[in-house]
Design goal:
alpha+beta, Aminopeptidase, 2 domains, 6-stranded mixed beta sheet, 9 helices, 24% strand
Length: 376
């Protein structure tokens, strides 16, 4: 058990509710910053050194809180933004507790985990618990759209760190943490053709939609489940009227790959679809967003430490690989030992049935807290 007194799951749930009922869509910087204001005040009040980076590009701020100490820090990073728009709390996803499940927008991905990190750091400072290394806590505003403004601060904090902990949701029926993730990326494909009357001047037209359809089939064929590579195209757009040869079309492309070599191969194959011939021009913008979090000996050693702590607390902590990316991809690619999926158990990320198993809040937070106290 950690030296720090974490409190009961009931106590954690009561405060977590205030986070969930403060809606924080990624697209609303003011809403995200409102929750950051509260966390900043709490952390300042217990002695954390605070750095707050102003948001850019329409996103909220990034909060960095540091505890005293010498040497390479332990970094813990969570995001406050969610995929849910304002109003779902009052309409389709109200806060409710049904047995061991607590429901609400963003509770699983990842307000529970970010709250656990905040709570552990706050209580370590409040109670004066000594830690082997200083702690750096980051609360970020834009993970759900690829961390365009928070990637640099996360990477800066991770340089020279002894370990990085990511309290993204625990996965599966048994609450697995994450030692590997696929790399993720995306492109926007734009196709320009030539319009013409679909009846009287058909041969003069060059259909952007047909060219796009051919490209989509080529992208779909790049999926190779045995190699762990997937591609997906959505949304798709193009054309104006049924009687006009479409002069423009486009789509968004998502891809996932388990290793940097596979990611680079897929990127090259998609970029090779760009061309200009016979009245058709295909252009592509994008690339790899999050590099793969490949399972390494350092990640596995960190996992072994966490699993041993969980066993002492009274539960098994399995591990898994995931197809989705997180901010842990960035730090793992830097060679920093990274352990992900240290948040709460539950299910339904990005879905109306999103929930956590709230009795697990305290034992899961205890593992995270003991890691923060003892790593180094």
């Amino acid at each position: 058990m950690p030296v720090t007194e974490i409190g009961s799951s009931d106590r954690l749930l009561a405060e977590l509710r205030t986070w969930v009922e403060h809606e924080t869509p990624t697209t609303d910087a003011r809403a995200v910053n409102g929750l950051l204001d509260r966390t900043e005040a709490e952390l300042r009040g217990v002695g954390a050194a605070i750095e707050r980076l102003p948001g850019t590009g329409g996103f909220g701020d990034t909060l960095i809180a540091r505890t005293p100490g010498e040497g390479a820090p332990v970094v813990v990073a969570g995001h406050l933004d969610t995929v849910w728009d304002h109003g779902v709390l009052a309409s389709s996803m109200p806060w409710r507790v049904e047995g061991e499940r607590a429901h609400g927008p963003g509770i699983y991905d990842m307000k529970a985990g970010s709250f656990m990190a905040f709570h552990a750091v706050r209580e370590i400072l409040r109670q004066g618990t000594p830690t082997r290394r200083p702690i750096t806590l980051l609360l970020t505003p834009d993970e759900e759209v690829g961390s365009p403004t928070s990637r640099a601060p996360i990477e800066a904090a991770a340089r020279g760190a002894c370990a990085v902990l990511i309290p993204e949701p625990a996965g599966g029926l048994h609450g697995a943490c994450v030692t590997g993730r696929k790399g993720t990326g995306g492109f926007t494909m734009t196709v320009a053709g030539r319009s013409a009357h679909a009846g009287g001047n058909w041969s003069e037209g060059r259909s952007a939609v047909v060219a796009l359809a051919q490209a989509i089939l080529a992208i779909h064929a790049m999926t190779d489940l045995e190699r762990g590579v997937t591609t997906n195209v959505a949304p798709v757009w193009g054309g104006t009227r049924p009687n006009v040869i479409p002069p423009e079309a486009g789509c968004r492309i998502d891809f996932r790959a388990p290793s940097l070599a596979e990611a680079e191969r897929v990127v090259a194959a998609i970029r090779a679809l760009a061309r200009e011939e016979d009245g058709i021009r295909i252009t592509l913008e994008g690339g790899l967003n999050r590099p793969p979090m490949e399972e390494t000996a350092a990640n596995l050693a960190l996992y072994g430490t966490a699993r041993a702590i969980a066993a002492r607390i009274g539960y098994d902590l399995p591990k898994q690989h995931r197809g989705g990316g997180s901010d842990g991809n960035f730090t793992a690619a830097m060679g920093i030992p990274t352990l992900d999926g240290l948040g709460c158990t539950g299910s339904g990320a990005h879905a109306p049935e999103e929930h956590i198993r709230w009795p697990d809040l305290a034992p899961r937070c205890a593992v995270l807290c003991e890691l923060l106290e003892t790593l180094g």
